[in-house]
Specification:
Length: about 220
């Protein structure tokens, strides 16, 4: 993809969804941090189901410490790797209370020192809460970046570096949301639904699926 194609790629996705949002549910920076940490190897839908009752009780690090590790486990036991995730959430909450006055820091350098918080999690928090232009490369963005030819790379860090260089200014803050949603609902892992893709002509993927599989109808288009 060249510069003009990348610009057009995001222009079309922005036109279709002008204000993209993460599908994780949260009320403040701390809840977002916890939700993203819990979402590793889990779906946003599954995390939301587990955190609704949790976040009704816990909206700050001290409240999480008061709940305790066993109390947290009871809320998130439906999420994969819940034992290790609970341990990390309690540990990061302790650090936030002891070292940051209970406030979620607004730098990647500080965030990645927290237990269970890697670069991707930090980037999501920085983007969604603090409005920073970060590129949180998850499995969807990794796939879309490589398939389309926009940002080819063998690792998430490689893809992030390419996006950092190639995504144009008007779309930088929201670009990772558009790419995640596109990968989740259109450019799917097993069978990309190219037949209904708004940017199919810009994509360099050679094995485009231009017709829905048998027994699977393309969505109806409302008349003008």
């Amino acid at each position: 993809m060249n510069k003009a194609q990348i610009f057009e790629f995001f222009r079309r996705l922005a036109e279709d969804n002008p204000v993209p949002q993460t599908e994780l549910e949260y009320g403040n920076a701390y809840q977002l941090l916890v939700a993203v940490a819990l979402s590793a190897q889990a779906t946003d839908v599954g995390v939301n189901k587990a955190t609704r009752a949790l976040f009704a009780k816990v909206d700050n690090p001290q409240a999480m410490l008061d709940l305790g590790e066993e109390g947290l486990k009871a809320h998130i036991k439906t999420i994969g790797l819940f034992n290790s995730k609970a341990k990390n959430v309690i540990a990061l909450s302790r650090i936030l209370v002891d070292d940051h006055g209970g406030i979620v820091p607004d730098t990647r350098e500080a965030l990645v020192t927290l237990p269970g918080v890697g670069r991707k999690t930090a980037n999501v928090v920085l983007n969604c809460w603090f409005g920073q232009e970060t590129f949180a490369v998850d499995t969807h963005i990794f796939r879309v970046g490589n398939r389309t030819g926009m940002a080819k790379g063998k690792t998430p860090d490689h893809v992030e570096a390419k996006l950092e260089k190639r995504v144009p200014a008007p779309f930088r803050r929201d670009s990772h949301h558009w790419m995640i949603l596109h990968g989740r609902y259109v450019c799917k892992a097993r069978t990309p639904e190219c037949w209904r893709c708004k940017v199919v002509d810009l994509c360099s993927f050679r094995k485009k699926v231009l017709e829905p599989p048998k027994g699977r109808q393309a969505p109806e288009v409302a008349p003008d």
